[in-house]
Write a structure and sequence with these properties.
Elements (H helix, E strand, L loop, with lengths): L1 E13 L10 E11 L2 H14 L2 E4 L5 E14 L23 H4 L7 H5 L2
Antiparallel strand pairs: 1-2, 1-4, 3-4
Amino acid sequence: MNRYAAKLLFQFRVDIDGDAGKRRTCEERIVVFIARNATSALAKSKRKGRDSEHNYLNSDGNPVFFEFVGVMDLLKLGLECDPDEVWYDIRERLMPMERRDVFIPAESELNAMRTET
């Protein structure tokens, strides 16, 4: 058995008088799980996405549909990953250390820091 991570894309579709509009709020979610191979990992990823779909009425009484769009990426987390590592992305960047202020936000702007009370 192997450890995999999948990046799933969801959309919030709000129906206002029959019009859902074109611009939608989206969620990118990373899930980690065990699967036998990449084919079964992809199937498991899609099932997790579909199982997460739901709908509700917002405060204005409009229906909101949380919909699974698809699998954006699927990684096999092999021996190169630490046990607590759930995702990696390897990219080439121009002078990242010298330009870290471009790539690394202020600590106060990190999502968890902004929402902590």
